[in-house]
Amino acid sequence: MGHGSRLVSFGECMLELQGTAFGQMHQTYGGDTLNTAVYAARCGRAGGLQVDYATALGDDPLSSGMLARWQAEGVGTSLVRRLPGRMPGLYLIEVDDHGERRFSYWRDQSAARAYFEAPAGSTALEQSVDRIDALYLSGISLAILPPDGRARLAAVCQALRERGAMVAFDNNYRPRLWPDARLAQRCFEQFLELASVGLLTLDDQCALWPDLGTDAALDRTLALTCPEVIVKRGAASTLVRLAGQAVVEVPTDPVPRVVDTTAAGDSFAGAYLAARLGGASPVQAAAAGNRLAARVVQHRGAVIPAEVMADLLPPA
C-alpha cells in the first residue's frame, strides 16, 4: 500500500499496575491492540505510516494522561471517544522468575466496551471507513464488545474488504472474557472470514479448540479461507501460508534469556503490519515480526523503551 498508508488498531487499553500484591507498584498502561499500535507506529514512521488507535476512554485525568502518552508515541487519537463518567479498565500484572505473567483484571465497566453505544454509523471509526488502508483487531477487541458492538465492527470490516483495504485479525483468546468457548469460536470464525490477514498464535488456537490437539488445530488454522495466514509457534519457526501456495517456515530469532513474554505477539503484529504496509512480502514481514518479538521478551513491560529497539527500525 506504500508510503503514507493509514493503519487503525481497534480495542481496549487499560491502566496497568506492575508489581507484587501489597508491595511496590509501578503504574503505566497497556492493552494488546494499543501495544500493537505503538510498535507499528515506531516501525512504520520512516515509511510514512500513519497509525491511529480507536477506543473509548472516560473524561477523567487518567484517560487524558493515556491520550497524551499515545500521542507522544506518534499514535493518532482522532478516533478515540471520550465518554463522560466512564473510566478505563485496570489490570495488575505479576511476573515470576521465569518471565511468565499472571493477570488480575478490573474491567467490567471500562469505557472501551461502550465504543459503539451511539447511533448506527455515527462513531468516528465508522465515519472513517473510506480513509483507512488497514484495520487491526483481536479476539480481545471482540470479547469486550456487546453483540451489537461486534455487529457494528463486523460491518466496518466488511466495508473495508469491499474496497480492498486490509483487515488483520489476531486471535488473542482469553477464556475469562467469554461466557463460553462456543461463542468465542463463532465470533473468531466470523471475523476470520472477514479478515484478509490472520495473525494466529497456535497456543491460542489450541485453547480455543481444546478437543483437537496441536496437530489438528494447526491443520485447521492452515485451512482457513483467510488469504494470508501467519501462525506463531513460540520459539518454533513461524509459518506463512498464502492462498494456493505452499507453507513457508520463517525461523525465530534466538533469545538468550526471556525476561517477560508480555506483548510478544503484539510487537510481532506491529512490526508485521508496518512491514506489509510498507511493501514487504509476508515472509519478510514475518521475519521483521520475529526480530522485534525476540527483542521485546528480553525487557520488562508491554512497551519497551524506544531506544532498545532503535537498531531494528528502518532508517528515516
Give the helices and strands, then pairings:
Layout lengths: L5 E5 L3 E6 L5 E6 L1 H13 L5 E5 L1 E3 L2 H12 L2 E2 L4 E3 L6 E6 L5 E6 L17 H4 L6 E5 H5 L3 H16 L3 E5 L10 H14 L2 E5 H7 L5 H9 L5 E6 L2 E7 L5 E3 L13 H14 L4 H15 L20
Parallel strand pairs: 1-4, 1-10, 2-8, 4-6, 5-7, 10-11, 11-12, 12-13
Antiparallel strand pairs: 2-3, 8-9, 13-14, 14-15
Helix pairs in contact: 1-9, 7-8, 9-10
The total of helices stands at: 10
- Provide the β-strand percentage band: 15-25%
CATH superfamily: Ribokinase
Report the average pLDDT across residues. Answer: 94
Q: What is the highest CATH level, the class?
A: Alpha Beta
What is the terminal-to-terminal distance?
Answer: 18 Å
| Number of individual domains | 1
Could you name the ranges where pLDDT drops below 50 across 5 or more consecutive residues? none
Helix content: 25-40%
CATH topology: UDP-N-acetylmuramoyl-L-alanine:D-glutamate ligase
Order of helices and strands: EEEHEEHEEEEHEHHEHEHHEEEHH
Cα gyration radius (Å): 18 Å
Short description:
By secondary structure, the protein is of the alpha/beta class. It is 34% helix and 23% strand.
What does this structure look like?
The protein is an alpha/beta fold and 316 residues long. It has one domain: UDP-N-acetylmuramoyl-L-alanine:D-glutamate ligase (3-Layer(aba) Sandwich). 34% of the residues lie in helices and 23% in strands. It has 10 helices and 15 strands. It has helices spanning 32-44, 61-72, 124-127, 139-143, 147-162, 181-194, 202-208, 214-222, 264-277, 282-296; strands spanning 6-10, 14-19, 25-30, 50-54, 56-58, 75-76, 81-83, 90-95, 101-106, 134-138, 166-170, 197-201, 228-233, 236-242, 248-250. The strands form 3 sheets. It has a 9-stranded mixed beta sheet with strand order 6-4-1-10-11-12-13-14-15, with helices on both faces. Strands 3-2-8-9 form a 4-stranded mixed beta sheet. A two-stranded parallel ribbon has the order 5-7. Strand 13 (228-233) and strand 14 form a beta hairpin. Helix 1 (32-44) packs across helix 9 (264-277), helix 7 packs across helix 8 (214-222) and helix 9 packs antiparallel against helix 10 (282-296). It starts with 5 loop residues before the first strand and ends in a 20-residue tail after the last helix.
